[in-house]
Write a structure and sequence with these properties.
The chain has 150 residues and is mainly α. The protein is built from eight helices and no strands. The protein starts with a helix and ends with a helix.
C-alpha cells in the first residue's frame, strides 16, 4: 500500500487492515474517495474488491460522488469496474446522468452518455436528464440522443 493511500485512510478514520469497510461515521471509503476525486484511492479500493453497490446517507452511489467531484478518472475507473451507471437514489430517483445534466457538468454528461447511461430514466417527480439540462450544450447532447432513439 502506497504511503499516500495509507495516510488518506488513516486521516479519514478508515481501517488500514480492512480498507473497504465503513468508518465510525458510517461513511464508505469508496464514496468519500470518489467525492474527493481521489482516483488513486478509488483504484486501490477497487483492487481490494470494494463493493460497488454501497450508497451514502442520501442513497447515492460512488459514481454519483465521482460526478459531484467532476472527476473523469474516478468516473472511468468506476464504470470500468462495473458500477451501476443507472443507479437511482431513493430520495429523488435521480441518476448520476440526471444529476450531472441538472448541474451543468458537461464533460461528465458526455462521459456518462458515451458509457451508455440511460437517458429515459425519470426522477420521482417525472423529470429526465433532458428535462433538467442546465446548459445549451447538455440540452443538445441529450436531445440528439432522445430524437435518435438511443
Amino acid at each position: 500500500m502506497k504511503p499516500e493511500i495509507r495516510d488518506w485512510l488513516q486521516n479519514n478514520y478508515f481501517s488500514v487492515a480492512q480498507p473497504v469497510l465503513k468508518n465510525g461515521a458510517d461513511i464508505y471509503p469508496l464514496i468519500l474517495a470518489s467525492q474527493q476525486g481521489r482516483a488513486d484511492v478509488v483504484r486501490f479500493l477497487l483492487e481490494q474488491d470494494a463493493a460497488l453497490d454501497v450508497v451514502d446517507q442520501y442513497g447515492n452511489n460512488a459514481l454519483w460522488a465521482a460526478c459531484y467531484a467532476d472527476n473523469s478518472d474516478c468516473i472511468g475507473a468506476l464504470i470500468h469496474a462495473g458500477v451501476d451507471i443507472d443507479h437511482q437514489n431513493a430520495v429523488s430517483g435521480a441518476t448520476a446522468l440526471i444529476f450531472a445534466a441538472s448541474t451543468g457538468r458537461e464533460k461528465v454528461v458526455g462521459q456518462l452518455l458515451a458509457a451508455g447511461a440511460d437517458t429515459t430514466l425519470k426522477t420521482h417527480d417525472d423529470f429526465t436528464a433532458l428535462d433538467l439540462a442546465a446548459t445549451r450544450k447538455i440540452l443538445k447532447l441529450l436531445s440528439m440522443l432522445v430524437k435518435s432513439g438511443d
